[in-house]
Design brief:
This is Putative GntR family transcriptional regulator. Helices cover about 25% and strands about 30% of the residues. It contains 9 helices and 11 strands. Strand 5 and strand 6 form a beta hairpin. The two termini are about 35 Å apart.
C-alpha cells in the first residue's frame, strides 16, 4: 500500500468512526498491523490529519489520536438527512461466492487480515459426512479477523479437508483463501448454501472484534461447493451488523415485481428491532 492509500484509508476511518460517535482512532501499532504498513507511514498520516484539523494527538497514558469532529456538537437542523450513527457500511451480496478482499476492493475499502490461528484438527461427525473423509483424516482450520479501512468487520472460521488441500497451512493465509485454492489447487468455489441469523457477541467474539459484549452480529454459516459440485469448505463468519448491509438480487419470475431487480435488507441497530431475534450463541 502506498502512503497516499494509507492516508486515504485512515482519513476514511476517522470520518466513519466520528459519524458513529467514537472519539479516538486505534493506536499507531494497531493501525499499522491492520493495514499491513509501517508505523512510520501511520505516524505521517496522523500528522497530516492533525494539520488538517481532523484529529489532535495527545501523549502519555491517555494519549492517542482523538477525533475532533466527534467532540463538536452536531447541527440537528436537518437530522433526517444524515444519521450520525450510520457509518459507511460494507455491502455483502447474497447468492454470490466472492472473497472478502475482492468484495472490499470493489467497494473502495482497503482490506486487512489478522491471522488468529491455523491448525490441523480431527473432523466432527458433520464434517466427516460433508467432506466424505474418515475420522483419522484431518481438517485444516483457520481463524482470522477481517478489517475494512482499518476497522474490524468480521471474525471468520474457515474449515476444509486437509486431505484435499495438503500443506494449506504452510502457505500465506493473509489474502483471499478462495484465490489461494484456485491458484494452488485448481479448485474454484462457485456456489454456497448460507444461513444467516442475528446473534449477540459473546465475550470471546466481542474481544476479537473489539466491540462490546452483546453487540448485534450477523452469524453466517456457509457450505461452499466447487465448479463440479464437490464440497469445498464449512465456515462460520460473524459480521458486525453496524458495518454490514446485505444485498439480495431479485429477478422477475421469482415472486418480485418486474422492476424489483435489487432488494436491500438493512439490519438496524436499535434494540427494539432486534431483541426478539437475537440469541446468545455467538
Amino acid at each position: 500500500m502506498t502512503y497516499e492509500e494509507t492516508f486515504a484509508t485512515i482519513s476514511r476511518l476517522a470520518d466513519d468512526l466520528a459519524r458513529r460517535g467514537f472519539t479516538k482512532l486505534p493506536a499507531e501499532r494497531e493501525l499499522a498491523e491492520r493495514l499491513n504498513v509501517s508505523r512510520s507511514s501511520v505516524r505521517r498520516a496522523l500528522a497530516e490529519l492533525e494539520d488538517e484539523g481532523i484529529v489532535h494527538r495527545k501523549r502519555g497514558r491517555t494519549g492517542g489520536a482523538y477525533l475532533t469532529a466527534a467532540q463538536s456538537q452536531p447541527d440537528n437542523t436537518f437530522v433526517d438527512e444524515v444519521d450520525p450513527a450510520e457509518g459507511r457500511r460494507v455491502e455483502r451480496p447474497l447468492g454470490t461466492v466472492v472473497g472478502v478482499p475482492q468484495m472490499l476492493r470493489s467497494q473502495g475499502f482497503e482490506s486487512g487480515t489478522r491471522l488468529l490461528s491455523a491448525s490441523y484438527e480431527h473432523p466432527t461427525e458433520e464434517e466427516r459426512h460433508y467432506f466424505d473423509i474418515d475420522s483419522d483424516d484431518l481438517i485444516a482450520a483457520i481463524v482470522r479477523i477481517r478489517f475494512a479501512d482499518g476497522d474490524s468487520l468480521s471474525l471468520e472460521s474457515f474449515r476444509v479437508s486437509a486431505t484435499r488441500f495438503p500443506q494449506l497451512l504452510e502457505r500465506s493465509l493473509i489474502g483471499s483463501l478462495y484465490e489461494l485454492l484456485v491458484e494452488h489447487y485448481g479448485v474454484r468455489p462457485t456456489t454456497a448454501d448460507e444461513q444467516i441469523r442475528v446473534v449477540c457477541a459473546s465475550p470471546r467474539v466481542a474481544a476479537a472484534l473489539a466491540v462490546e459484549v452483546g453487540t448485534p452480529l450477523l452469524k453466517v454459516t456457509r457450505n461452499t461447493y466447487d465448479q463440479f459440485g464437490e464440497p469445498v469448505e464449512m465456515s462460520v463468519d460473524y459480521f458486525r451488523a453496524d458495518r454490514t448491509v446485505l444485498h439480495v438480487p431479485a429477478h422477475p419470475g421469482d415472486g418480485q415485481e418486474p422492476g424489483a431487480h435489487r432488494l436491500q435488507h438493512r439490519l438496524e441497530m436499535g434494540h427494539h428491532d432486534t431483541q426478539r431475534e437475537v440469541t446468545a450463541d455467538a
